[in-house]
Amino acid sequence: MSPLSLSSLETKDFLAIGMAVLLSGVLYSTRKRKSRYPPPPGPKKLPLVGNLFDLPKGFEWETYAQWSREFNRRDKLLQGSGVVLLEILGKSIIVVNSFDAATELFDKRSTLYSSRPQFPMVNELMGWKWLISAMAYGEPWRERRKLFQKHFSSNNASFYQPVQTEFIRKIKEDPLPHHLVLLKWLMDVYSAVGGMSLSLAYGIPIQHQDDPYINLAEKAAASISEAAIPGAFLVDMMPSLRGVLEMIPGSTFKQKVQYYHDLQETFHNKPYDATIKNIASGVAKPSFMSACMEEIDETGNVPHQKEVIKDTAGIVFAAAADTTLSGIHSLFVAMLHHPEVQEKAQAELDRVLGGRLPEFSDEPDLPYVSAVVKELLRWHPATPIAVPHYASEDDVWEGYHIQKGSLVIGNAWAILHDEEAYPDPSAFKPERFLDKEGKLDENVRDPAVAAFGFGRRMCPGSHIGMSVIWLTTATILATLKISQAVDENGMPIEHKIEYLPGLICHPAPFKCTIKPRSAVAEALIQSVADSY
């Protein structure tokens, strides 16, 4: 369930909040601009609170898509545009549910829709304002994005792909079991991907188990996932509530904020400080941060340059692990329910690899595996709802007024389940991305257009995330067989596809059977893993 604060507030909080709502409504009614163009359609609003009580308690992307279809049928102006308006305590939220609308607003009108709303909870109270994904559009954002792209563009694959390969090869259980709770195995995946990010960013090695940096990253990702959902905390819609909530006797708000802020500070500073120490003592391993420190212009503003390096290194560390884990988690769900897909992918891998592990250079020769990865991104995207954009000016689109200051949110799930682009969208069908000759069909819309964000705020490391998911998928399918778990009587345990809501979406925990495909595969896994 999404952490909508209405569900987490105590009864005694509502009196104070009610007064704040009244004040907010009065103030909003005096400042709201009039326009000769109508607002986009949406659910009927209540006085003062608007659609506060209409906010979905979870899986909001599905509800927004349903609303879009409903209002599209009613309103002739929309003509399939697929936008929906919500108003929460005077704040306008535009949900964009179609590819055409997303392209028009986020790409063609990027100067108006490239900024981010500055949520008090995430940016100020928790302190994550230094993240690229949280920054307003402007020079600080450009500086950090430029530095990231300089070192992690696709032209620099020779820098990061060997590290990716090393850590993906480390994904193993010791010894490999025949049955397990998948969550345990996925923690090994998380550790490997987190270790890869830590190595790329700082050159810091990780412990085999219970690494403090990986544990820190996991807690930090969970805190952001909870707090970054629009509507998760009423303080984001009504900043004046901050003081009210902090003064309520017995309220846990202040303690929660302090815990989250301390977690952010540790995440931001601990690996950076350790790397500075390693550089000073001459033991630092090659990394993004060590390379950047060598490039500092001593004639310029050195403290500012170090601040940009520090922030960007933190972004490299934070970027990959949880979203990658979601994609791999979905791989197991898909293979459990579609053994025929697993068999086709393994047949292609066997034909191309001939008994070795896959390399990045094999990708052009493995179109079916690539189609499986594309379908994983489309079927259950890791971030079904994109991080909100911000309308920096009033705009008129398709005859509707989009008010300055509106939150504009891309519904990636709705776009990736568009029946016109992807017939039978609920089904897992990698073949939809292949032509009649079995090659990738360039005429089918690439799910990356929505899976990694939109416009100028699209994830700058999307190609790195894609490459990690591709090589991990190819490695798993080349060596392992995924099938139903069995109970104590040897009977198969039926699995129901179920996902948990959140900013980053994961399947609900489940059991399955994971076996090496053969004795040769088992020996290959162990020999390669032991070589690192």
What does this 3D model show about the protein?
- 51% of the residues lie in helices and 8% in strands.
- By secondary structure, it is of the alpha+beta class.
- The strands form 4 sheets. The protein has a 4-stranded mixed β-sheet with strand order 1-2-7-4. Strands 3-11-8 form a 3-stranded antiparallel β-sheet.
- A hairpin with a 2-residue loop joins strand 5 and strand 6 (400-402).
- Helix 13 crosses helix 15 (302-319) and helix 16 (321-337) crosses helix 17 (339-353).
- The longest helix has 29 residues, at 253-281.
- The chain is globular.
- The chain starts with a helix and ends with a helix.
- Residues 1-31 and 173-180 have low confidence and may be disordered.
Would you kindly provide a brief summary of this structure?
The protein is of the alpha+beta class. It is built from 22 helices and 11 strands.
Major beta sheet summary: 4 strands, mixed
Weakly predicted, low-confidence segments: 1-31, 173-180
State the end-to-end distance: 40 Å
Per DSSP, the total helix count is: 22
Mean pLDDT, to the nearest integer, reads 86
Assign a percent range to the helix content. Answer: 40-55%
- Count of strand segments: 11
Strand content is 5-15%
Largest beta sheet: strand ordering: 1-2-7-4
Features:
single chain, 532 residues, alpha+beta, four-stranded mixed beta sheet, three-stranded antiparallel beta sheet, globular, disordered N terminus, iron ion binding, heme binding, iron
